[in-house]
Amino acid sequence: MRELTQIEFLDIEEKKEFEKIINSVIEECFTTEGLIDTKLYVSIILTSPQKIKELNHKYRKIDKETDVLSFPMFEKDDINENISKEIEEPLGDIVISIDRVKEQAKEYGHSFERELAYMVVHGFYHLMGYDHIQDTDKIEMRQKEENVLNKLKITRED
Question: CATH says 5-151 is which class?
Answer without folding.
Answer: alpha beta
